[in-house]
């Protein structure tokens, strides 16, 4: 089936939602680099059910009423990239992981730089939460959507219940289809999170 897209306005700019058939294939940023995520030619299709559902769930997320997504996902990439992107889906709402944590989780502790590269090419932003991956020292590091948006998303997940409050805490801007999995179903918002690593996610 033809790849189709729908544009939606959001607190982090205009997002381009892309579907492959009935699955979500990408969420691209307003100023995304053209070659960051490689997709076949896409056509506009505002009525594709998966795109409408994605927009609905994203709006709930931005409103502070959703902390998990329930969407069928379709990732295209190398086997290594898919392992990294699958690991992103396990990072709980409101928590962060380092690149080293992700490398350990996928069983390749020496692949920290490669994990960073794969994280940067994550096609399904926000839903596969690459914004929850930070430097070992706690630095936000690079982000395809820009560091202001990264801080916005982390602030929103850190117990903020309004877009205005999250925006106030955002830092100034710094310079063959294969499905990995399904995002977890929605549940009520959690209390303010810890930023620590849960060892249970890494082999226990």
3D structure, described in words:
GO terms for molecular function: methylated-DNA-[protein]-cysteine S-methyltransferase activity. It catalyses: a 6-O-methyl-2'-deoxyguanosine in DNA + L-cysteinyl-[protein] = S-methyl-L-cysteinyl-[protein] + a 2'-deoxyguanosine in DNA; a 4-O-methyl-thymidine in DNA + L-cysteinyl-[protein] = a thymidine in DNA + S-methyl-L-cysteinyl-[protein]. Its EC number is 2.1.1.63. Helix 3 crosses helix 4. The radius of gyration is 16 Å and the shape is globular. The chain starts with a strand and ends in a 36-residue tail after the last helix. It has a domain of about 100 residues: Orthogonal Bundle (Arc Repressor Mutant, subunit A), CATH 1.10.10.10. With about 200 residues, it is an alpha/beta fold. The protein has 6 helices and 6 strands; from the N terminus they run ββββααβααβαα. A 4-stranded mixed beta sheet has the order 3-2-1-4, with helices on one face.
Helix content: 25-40%
Helix and strand element order: EEEEHHEHHEHH
The rounded distance between the terminal residues' Cα atoms is 40 Å
Give the name of the CATH superfamily of the domain at 79-175. Answer: Winged helix-like DNA-binding domain superfamily/Winged helix DNA-binding domain
Assign an overall shape: globular
**CATH T-level topology of the domain at 79-175:** Arc Repressor Mutant, subunit A
Q: How many individual helices?
A: 6
Q: What fraction of the residues are assigned to beta strands by DSSP?
A: 5-15%
What kind of sheet is the major sheet? 4 strands, mixed
Structural class: alpha/beta
**Strands, count:** 6
Which strands sit side by side, in order, in the main sheet? 3-2-1-4
CATH class of the domain at 79-175: Mainly Alpha
